[in-house]
Amino acid sequence: MSNSIYVLNGPNLNLLGSREPELYGRATLADVEKLCRATARRFGLAVEFRQSNHEGEIIDSIHQARGEQAAGLIINPAGFTTTSVAILDALLTMEAPVIEVHITNIHTRESFRRHSYVSRAARAVVCGFGANGYALAITGLAALIGAKEGAQG
Ligand code: CA2
User: Can you tell me the distance from the alpha carbon of 85 to that of 72, in angstroms, rounded to the nearest whole number?
Assistant: First the structure.
C-alpha cells in the first residue's frame, strides 16, 4: 500500500468560493487542496487532489487510485452523488477505505439530495462541516488506516 490518498471532487466544485458563499462558504478549491495537503502531511500522507466535471474522468481517477494501491480515497461526488451508479461501481472495486464528503448537510436540503448512491461504498460520510469536512475526513481516514500523527510523509 502506498502512502498516498486520493481526494476527488465532482462537478462544479471548481466554482467553490466564487458562487453561493452562504451555502458553500468562501474557501476556494485551491484553499481546500491546501487544507487537505496540510492535514495529510501531519499523518505522513501524500495527497493526489483532483476535480472533474466529467463522470468518466472521475471513474478513471478511482481506477488509478486502485491501481496505485492508494491508502484511501475521499470523494465529494457533488451532483453525481444522487445519479451515478457508475461511480458507485468504481468505488466498490476499491479495497482501501472510501470516505464521502459533502460541504453542506445534504439531509437538510432538497429531498433529492438525500439519497446518495456513493454512500453504499463509503466507510464513512462527513457532511455539513463546510470545507473543514475534508480535514475531518482525512483525520478519520488516518485513524482507520493506522497512520500516526507525526509520521514522516
Ligand atoms: O455539499 C456538497 O458538498 C455537495 O456535494 C455539493 C454539490 C451538491 O450537488 C450536493 O448535493 C452537495 C454541488 C457542488 C456545486 O458546487 C458549487 C460551488 C460553488 C458554487 C456553486 C456550486
Answer: 20
